[in-house]
Amino acid sequence: MELISIIAFVLISIITAAYIYFKNAFNYWKSRGIPFEEPIIPYGSVKGLNKTIHTSDITKRIYDKFKGTAKYCGVYLMAAPIAMILDLDLVKHILVKDFSNFSDKGFYSNEEDDPLSANLFTLDGDKWKKLRAKLTPTFTSGKMKIMFSHVVEVGERFNDCLRGIVQENNEVEIKDLLARFTTDVIGTCAFGIECNSLKDPNAGFKNMGEKAFRPRYPSLIQFLVIGMKNVSRRFHVKIMPDDVSEFFLRMVYNTVKYREKNDVHRNDFMDILIKLKNDKNALEGLTLNEIAAQAFLFFLAGFETSSTTLMFCLYELSKNPDIQSKARKVVQEAYEKHGTFTYEMMMDMPYIDHILQETLRRYPPVPFVSRIAKNDYNVPETSNIIEKGTIIVIPTYAIQNDPEYYPDPERFDPDRFAADIARERDTMTWLPFSEGPRNCVGLRFGMMQARTGLAILLNNFEFTLNSKTIEPLSYIPDCFVLNPKGGVHLNLIPIKSK
Ligand code: HEM
Fold this sequence. Notes:
Blueprint lengths: L2 H23 L2 H4 L23 H12 L5 E6 L2 E6 L2 H10 L27 H11 L5 H28 L2 E3 H18 L12 H10 L5 H9 L1 H6 L7 H21 L6 H10 L9 H32 L1 H18 L4 H4 L3 H13 L6 E4 L4 E2 L6 E2 L4 E4 L1 H5 L18 H4 L20 H18 E5 L23 E6 L4
Parallel strand pairs: 2-7
Antiparallel strand pairs: 1-2, 3-9, 4-7, 5-6, 8-9
Helix pairs in contact: 6-7, 6-19, 7-13, 11-13, 12-13, 13-16, 13-19, 14-19
């Protein structure tokens, strides 16, 4: 046989085998009688995901199409079957009532070769359980109160920095500036250092943080790594870029060494993590690498989500001047009542909380929550079974923008969260931080940072929307959090602060 014929034969065989594999895989939901989104080879049901369409748009389209037809529907991510949950009762079972069967996420981590990858977000099973128990006390309201002064300090520096910028030009792209604020807050609290991104936009921390969010491999390879975790570990596959790893590991080693040698305490996350390392009674303590992985995760989980929340909040306040004025009045009255910005003052502004809750409803930075079934699961009140190993997706963005739960969902209305109205709603209709034993452990810190940033901004500036903002907002497809194309451009007018 000529070479060309051999190549043609091999190619045709591979294509035929792949075709048969996909056709078989695509029978999964149909054969179980579950409504499903029609797949195509090789994308599955999510053609365009992360290339031309953001996850929030795909999950919303599928949720809107199937809601009411069943408790969950089937989706294919390439050939893998995914169960997308449509029913709030089933959401509650998965996140809370039957959590023990859905505590895992099925992500890849490699403690030996890639220490930063073994963090609370990625670990599963017993390792996750133990680590969560060790870290939960880090985020009590008592600990938040102690860290509050660091947040206000950075907030005041942020205000000075903005005033300086606005003196030269009052048109600003706000996302980048807010990311500098949240980077400095979390850098101060998690690593105990001045990141300086407010003064120097290219400072290492922010650059490294952004780099850590960019995937090391194309989607197909990532999918293979997750699908073959043990093999990938055997081949020493890492997911963090080497320079990011080196940067954060060095930072933590140096900080711990310095603090231990000089007996330095700053009342921050790093203090608490060092105490855990040295406390041999506390469920085996923490190793230095474990400290680095958690501090790194707090940084990643904290800076992007919180700056995104503040960005959407300012966008909506710019479009709704009445709400903005009311919010400013609330802040100014609180300053008058409390004299200075104290923890008690921050907790004494319920309307500010309603604004942030409505922002997180309309624009949840993390648009879905995922889990993996540990064992076969009998779906309550049905004869259906979610099989062991099935990936579960809870489409937070779609649920929170469903007109059945939030009439006229695109309207920004903080009063939806007034106590008497919110009480009437199912708690599973608001999931920006998820729910149950694996919800966001940093919720209190995230809210503290957002409340502080917003109050300081409202007390110092008026905002209007600049025409450079591209409306209606659409999201950058390959960005995990919601990130508007072209950014959010605002006009900032400094006002006399209280
Ligand atoms: C507005 C801000 C934030 C939002 C919207 C947010 C949202 C979320 C969501 C949706 C999850 C997944 C929960 C699940 O799978 O059920 C999560 C997990 C997590 N978040 Fe946050 N987060 C925010 C801020 C923070 C901050 C400031 C920190 C740390 C300082 C943090 C640390 C974590 C950690 C460690 C996890 C993993 C928890 C676990 O798997 O046990 N987050 N977050």
